[in-house]
Structure formats: C-alpha cells, structure tokens
Amino acid sequence: MRAGVHVGEIELRGDGVAGIAVHLAARVMGKAGAGQVIVSRTVRDLTVGSGLEFLPHGVHELKGIPGTWELFTLEMSR
Predict the structure, then answer these.
(1) For the domain bounded by 3-74, which CATH number is listed?
(2) Residues 28, 62: contact at Cβ < 8 Å?
(3) Which of 11, 33, 36, 53 fits 19 for a cystine, CB–CB 3.0-4.6 Å?
(4) 5: helix, strand or coil
C-alpha cells in the first residue's frame, strides 16, 4: 500500500472530483514506494504543530504539473 497527499481546491463533477489538486495528489502518490506516505510541502506546512514528523523526499518535477515540488515522507511510528 502507498499513499500521496496534497491539499488544494477541487472541482466537483457529477459524483466525482477533478482539478489540479487531484492530479497533483496522484503524481505525489506515484513517488511513493510500498508502505510509504508521501506528502507535498503544502501538507507539511499546514500540519505544523500537529506532532506529525516528515523526512525530506527531494524536489521533483511532476508530469503535467508546472514547476518543481518539494516532497516529504511521513514518518510512521511503529
């Protein structure tokens, strides 16, 4: 199992969602390996003070998304 998380505005389309934030989350998930949760810098910044811990995962170009994106791995307690 793997996950990618991003926060942003979405568009409601029928019973589904669309928009750049949806595509970005999918691209972030594509950078995750088995058992990883990868998040965008936006998520890391919005969760300051939450107690969640993040490790740098590098700066990436994400297909179809302008610019470069700093990603982080959510440190999972075991």
Answers:
(1) 3.30.70.1230
(2) yes
(3) 11
(4) strand
User: What span, in angstroms and rounded, lies between the C-alpha atoms of 40 and 30?
Assistant: 12
- Please give the C-alpha separations between residue 26 and each of 2, 23, 30, 59, in angstroms, as whole numbers: 11, 5, 6, 16
Cα dihedral across residues 1, 20, 67, 5: positive or negative? negative
Question: What does the block give as tokens for 18?
Answer: 């669309």
What is the 3-state composition of the chain as percent helix, strand, coil, each rounded to the nearest 5? 20, 35, 40
Every domain of the chain and the residues it spans = 3-74
Strand residues in the chain grouped as ranges (E): 3-5, 11-13, 16-18, 37-40, 54-61, 68-74
Per run of 10 residues, the mean pLDDT along the chain (length 78 residues) is 96 94 96 97 97 97 95 87
CA gap 6, 2 in Å, rounded: 14
